[in-house]
């Protein structure tokens, strides 16, 4: 196999493949021919009754759930009477309304699909991942696919800031509820339930990336919402609390191994393996609590100047570890609504790192920067310089502003603490305190 691949020269940017490195013409047909010749096809049983396991789901407001999978045996046509073999041995009768196969970036309807084809079946009664769709003669289901349980949860609520509705079309709790319920039809690893706080929902998923993809999709569709700090989902097993652990794999330059260890060790990470090669790269493997991964990626990128590759996967539930370090710096909170001024930001940057630019719209309770100390500070980022009638040459200082820290969605979700929200709109991502006024924040501290 390796010898065959080495005979193909295929620069992707140029759009051709050839057996002769000196020949730079033609198309990628030689590469496709080699794939057909050396890559084995799917193992199928054409002479047996129809069987297919559902491996993914899509949803349409017109036809409901659409089950997708590869046909393991037999053939299927529109109108066929089938059975749906669910979990725990439950069997339900079904009729296929439409059979579609994949063509380019879309699907096209066909009159028949046979063993080995990747198809989508329309008309089945609410199929789930792992269900076996089969001919009524079949008595044994295919091995069921197990969907991992959610390990991380977040609070989704409406956008209650003064800037609500400026850029989004869907801003009410009804809009938010309908969108989350619709996502449940195809996103099988997602869980949604009503939260204790009014107009809020507890959304659970398979890690921060899973939930951030959903948030980004909603943002691009025109939704405005606020989300809280990510929290891991604990389980009580044999009278003790257990938390999810992840298997963390890091590939980094050997020079930065020390920096990586300094970040992971305080987060209860335990090294499982470490190897280095002659090219100056090291491969590290850790077992770490899932909550220790929150905010870790950004810090690793900063510590290694972007020269790190991070992967992790769910490893199981284990007894809960001790406390983990939280954010070491406080934040700057705006005490007024208006537009940020260059003069005010210039004065503030001496003791903080800013998140906003001059001219940005700001409201009371919005987080505009990170304090150099561990306490939160209420500031006025709108203040203009006092003007007088007295002027002298060289009396004014030159205003030089440092570039603000860019807060992407993923970085913002990792950054917030329990008393803060990430405000997400189609036009902007902002950080804010849950209590916008200083009085409301003080009252909440007294109650706590």
What does this protein look like?
The chain is an alpha+beta fold. It has five domains: 2-38, no CATH class; 51-134, Translation factors (Elongation Factor Tu (Ef-tu), domain 3, Beta Barrel); 152-232, Elongation Factor G (Translational Gtpase), domain 3 (Alpha-Beta Plaits, 2-Layer Sandwich); 238-319, Alpha-Beta Plaits, CATH 3.30.70; 331-386 and 397-447, OB fold (Dihydrolipoamide Acetyltransferase, E2P) (Beta Barrel). Helix content is 18%, strand content 33%. It has helices spanning 2-6, 29-38, 173-184, 208-220, 257-264, 296-303, 342-348, 409-415, 438-447, and strands at 51-53, 56-60, 64-73, 75-76, 81-85, 91-95, 98-103, 106-109, 113-114, 118-122, 132-134, 152-158, 191-194, 200-205, 225-227, 231-232, 235-237, 240-253, 270-276, 281-289, 308-319, 331-334, 338-339, 352-354, 361-362, 367-371, 377-379, 420-424, 429-433. A hairpin with a 5-residue loop joins strand 5 (81-85) and strand 6 (91-95). The N and C termini lie far apart (65 Å).
């Amino acid at each position: 196999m390796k010898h065959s691949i080495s005979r193909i020269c295929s620069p992707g940017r140029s759009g051709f493949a050839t057996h002769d490195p000196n020949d730079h013409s033609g198309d990628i047909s030689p590469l496709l021919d080699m794939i057909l010749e050396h890559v084995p096809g799917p193992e199928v049983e054409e002479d047996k009754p129809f069987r297919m396991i559902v491996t993914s789901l899509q949803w349409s407001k017109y036809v409901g759930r659409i089950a997708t999978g590869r046909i393991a045996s037999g053939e299927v046509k529109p109108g066929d009477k089938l059975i749906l073999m669910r979990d725990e041995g439950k069997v339900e009768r079904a009729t296929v309304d439409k059979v579609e196969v994949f063509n380019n970036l879309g699907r096209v309807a066909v009159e028949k699909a046979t063993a080995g084809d990747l198809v989508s079946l329309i008309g089945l009664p609410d199929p789930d991942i792992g269900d076996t769709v089969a001919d009524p003669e079949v008595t044994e289901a295919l091995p069921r696919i197990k969907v991992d349980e959610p390990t991380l949860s977040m609070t989704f609520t409406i956008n209650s800031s003064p800037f609500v509705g400026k850029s989004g079309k869907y801003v009410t709790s009804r809009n938010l509820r309908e969108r989350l319920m619709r996502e449940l039809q195809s996103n099988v690893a997602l869980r949604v339930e009503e939260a204790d706080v009014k107009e809020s929902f507890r959304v659970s998923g398979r890690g921060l990336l899973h939930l951030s993809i959903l948030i980004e999709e909603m943002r691009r569709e025109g939704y405005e919402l606020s989300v809280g700090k990510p929290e891991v989902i604990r389980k009580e097993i044999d009278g003790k609390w257990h938390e999810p652990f992840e298997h963390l794999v890091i590939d980094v330059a050997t020079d930065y191994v020390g920096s990586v260890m300094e970040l992971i060790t305080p987060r209860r990470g335990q090294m499982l393996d470490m190897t280095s090669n002659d090219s100056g790269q090291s491969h590290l493997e850790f077992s770490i609590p899932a909550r220790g991964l929150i905010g870790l990626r950004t810090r690793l990128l900063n510590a290694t100047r972007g020269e790190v590759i991070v992967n992790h996967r769910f490893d199981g539930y284990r007894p809960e570890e001790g406390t983990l370090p939280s954010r070491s710096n406080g934040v700057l909170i705006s005490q007024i609504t208006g537009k940020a001024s260059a003069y005010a930001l210039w004065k503030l940057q001496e003791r903080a790192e800013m998140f906003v630019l001059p001219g940005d719209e700001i409201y009371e309770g919005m987080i505009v920067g990170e304090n150099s100390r561990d306490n939160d500070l209420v500031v006025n980022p709108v203040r203009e310089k006092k003007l007088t009638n007295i002027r002298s040459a060289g009396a004014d200082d030159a205003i030089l502003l440092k570039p603000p820290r860019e807060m992407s969605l993923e970085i913002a979700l990792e950054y917030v603490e329990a008393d803060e929200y990430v405000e997400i709109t189609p036009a902007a991502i902002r950080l804010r305190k849950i209590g916008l006024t200083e009085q409301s924040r003080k009252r909440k501290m007294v109650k706590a």
